[in-house]
Write a structure and sequence with these properties.
Radius of gyration: 24 Å
Order of helices and strands: HHHEEHEHHEHEEHEHEHEHEEH
Largest sheet: 9 strands, mixed
Helix content: 40-55%
Structural class: alpha/beta
CATH architecture of the largest domain: 3-Layer(aba) Sandwich
Number of strands: 11
Number of domains: 3
């Protein structure tokens, strides 16, 4: 009996399909199926009932499944006991614009100082795209705006953090600079920079907070937050960013841009983080994610 045979069996049960499990693990279906068949032959029993609609686990298969989980947990404990204090490799995090510059820098510095050989890969994106990455295993952790799109993912666990509000950010050349708030009618007259697919398709985030009939006109699109803020500070363009996550932004602190609440539209939202319930994180990933989640929790208590 080999660990890879047990792993293939566990993955097939998780996905209720040998073909899907093989695809998700980038292994040919024939090799994946052979591993399980060899395990069954060695044990002398059937672990799975195979049908045209998928697989079901036999009674003995459930027993093997429980024992296999214990074996892999023991393997993790062995690694944990022999693990050095420093981590190496790569941990991937999907994040909406904002938290990376306002909430996570200290946590990232802490992680990097203790683990210089570790690579933290942050992918900035929109909430729905981040959910796809976490669900598919491309990202270990996702920091997202809560929305109805999460109902499409049964394999994602969402943990709420804190409430925030989208503000319209303008620069000194904007006709709104002297105002303390903006109405929807005024907003729709502004030249707007959208982040990614905002107001083009519903990718979660601010688009989900607007009724389609109230979508503002978009004049410029970018997926680079720094470019967006530069354009707003140097012209009469405007854009949306979360209020709390912009409080320590250098453009805001230096008076180059400022945020205006939309007086006749509710743009409050909840920020949280997501994890996959299907993909098993390594000890390395869990340790890094614990530090990042602690930073998010601490920020949430202050907000």
């Amino acid at each position: 009996m080999q660990l890879n045979q047990l792993f293939c069996f566990m993955e097939a049960v998780k996905y209720h399909s040998i073909s899907v499990a093989a695809e998700q693990n980038y292994i040919s279906q024939s090799s994946f199926s052979s591993s399980i068949s060899r395990l069954e032959k060695e044990l002398g029993v059937s672990l799975l009932k195979r049908t045209n609609t998928g697989i079901t686990v036999t009674e003995y298969g459930n027993y093997v499944l429980d024992q296999a989980k214990l074996i892999f947990e023991a393997q993790d404990n062995i690694i944990r006991a022999s693990d050095s204090s420093q981590l190496t490799g790569t941990v991937s995090v999907g994040c909406i614009p904002g938290p990376l510059s306002s909430i996570l820098p200290e946590a990232v510095i802490q992680i990097q100082e203790k683990n210089p050989g570790l690579i933290l890969s942050f992918n900035i994106g929109e909430s729905r795209d981040i959910a796809k990455d976490v669900s598919s295993g491309y990202a270990n952790l996702g920091i997202v705006v809560c929305g109805v799109y999460l109902k499409n993912y049964k394999d994602i666990k969402y943990t709420p953090l804190f409430q925030d509000e989208y503000l319209l950010y303008v620069g000194r050349q904007s006709s709104l600079w002297e105002k303390s708030s903006v109405a929807l009618k005024e907003l729709r007259k502004q030249k707007l920079i959208a982040y990614g697919d905002e107001f083009k398709k519903d990718n979660g985030g601010i688009t989900e907070l607007f009724q389609k009939k109230d979508y503002p006109d978009v004049n410029l699109v970018s997926d680079n937050p720094d470019f967006i803020k530069t354009m707003v500070s140097r012209s009469d363009y405007s854009t949306f960013f979360p209020k709390h996550m912009m409080e320590n932004d250098i453009y805001v602190k230096n008076g180059l841009i400022k945020g205006l609440p939309v007086s006749d539209y509710d743009l409050t939202f909840e920020l949280g983080y997501i994890e996959s319930t299907s993909y098993r994180s390594s000890l390395k990933e869990e340790r890094v994610m614990d530090i990042l989640k602690s930073a998010l929790y601490s920020y949430g208590k202050m907000s």
